Amino acid sequence: MVSFFVCCQKQPSETRYYPSNLDLSMDTIELIRLDTTSLNFRQLTNKIGNFDGAEYQKLMFEFEDGNIIKRIMPYNYGSGHYKEYNILAIFNDSILKEGGFPISKLNEKLKKHYKNKGESRHYARSIRKALVEIAFDSSQTANELEKVLVKLTRAFDEVKEEINDSIQLRLYLSYMRNIMPPPPPLPSVSNNQLNLN
Question: Where along the chain do its domains lie?
Fold first, then answer.
């Protein structure tokens, strides 16, 4: 007698959206599953388009975190101007605030970012202005982005539950932070200093 064992994978029980106040039809959105796409970080970021332009493409990243499907609508800066203190920037595995912190401090720094209310000059002036930026090397893969997004959304969900407010995770992507700045100008040298005879 042959026995068959049917093993069922856990089916996702919930879908969460970031920001959660989206009022969009999924028919108008391009959904990119981060675990299956071959796009790198630069290609993903370039697909976003400008939020303030008519050509703005509604794009959403999807990934699974345990039995939860998470969908994030990313933005890029376009022509917008944002105050640095309103942005909690994550660059690779570091948080770029107050001289820098390891990603292991994400919960603590995210909570400070959303709860600041203008107390610290390094963090968002209000809950409504708080942004999170992820900047990677442009060749990083979607899987690497997914790992950071899992950490970020878990930390955000904890902060949101603790604050008990209608805070929103507004995520911006950028690969511009890792472009090397131009070298400093060469010091001016006079003919006397060159000692040309």
Answer: 14-76+86-178
